[in-house]
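INFO batch 0412 | record 1 of 1 | parsing
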Amino acid sequence: MSEDFLIDNQEDDDELFEHHRIVADAGQTLIRIDKFLMDRLPNVTRTKIQQGIHDGFVKVNEKPIKPNYKVHPNDTIVISLPQPPRDTDIVPENIPLNIVFEDEYLLVINKPAGMVVHPAYQNWTGTVVNALARHFKNLPQMPGNEGRPGLVHRIDKDTSGLLVIAKEEKTLTGLAKQFFDHSIERTYWALVWGEPNPPNGTINVNVGRSLKDRRVTATFPDGTMGQHAITHYKTLKNFRYVSLVECKLETGRTHQIRAHMKHLGHSLFNDTVYGGSDILKGTVFTKYKQFVDNCFKLMPRQALHAKTLGFVHPVTQKFMQFDSDLPDDFKSVIEKWENYVKYN
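INFO prediction complete | emitting tokens
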């Protein structure tokens, strides 16, 4: 079983569960802890091991250590993670998928909001992967990606929109390379608080796991921490208090758009993790507060939709572009804002 050390599922749970306990031999030579663990944990990259150490998931002799710590004879290394140990066997489930395109090599689906992409702590069933396990057999997996057959990318549970899944090995490898090279074309539509100024622009700010809360992606403007991240945005419509914005990803980091738009001062509408579930723009009148609250109830999630997806088919070598309609909850909230600013 491989460990990715990073929490894919944002849950409010600080309890850690022991996954590995390794005791160094009495004749162990001094070696960096990250190199030591790479030899003992299958399918885990050095970067992920170092991130796990930074996040406090690795302890030696019951004490936190740094990635440059050198393992000594008889050291006891314990790796603990936020989710309890579990087999990577996927239970097939009869869950309908909204398939936009399918051939013998891949399929593109339109994921509804509220559906988790792959099994993880507190969401072992009802996921896209559980549905895929029933629809298809022997979907390929990337090394170090056990339990996520066919997946080369994901979108958050409460984000709706397009997702591509590989059905065989060559396609999986080809798509994964395009994501790695940032050649995949992806645009998202987001409803954000306020009116971005300038209305169109590029956010080039590093993002990474927050030093205060590992469940949250933070921005690091000075560039000394985090991963390189670029989001191009364009305002499509202004509704005085909120705006409909198109975001084009040049990189694809965890929660990139949500963190970048917050950094810009325009958190996504009803994004509870990044401050968008507070009223960030508008009046103090009770009528307005009630209107916003009704919008929150109509769309009880962050207003983010993976609108388009473009890539080169790894087998046919043809460029493919897909577009998806906004889901009903998103459409309804936009209509409400259009009417509100029209009559108020």
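INFO post-check: Residues 1-14 have pLDDT under 50 and may be disordered.
INFO record closed
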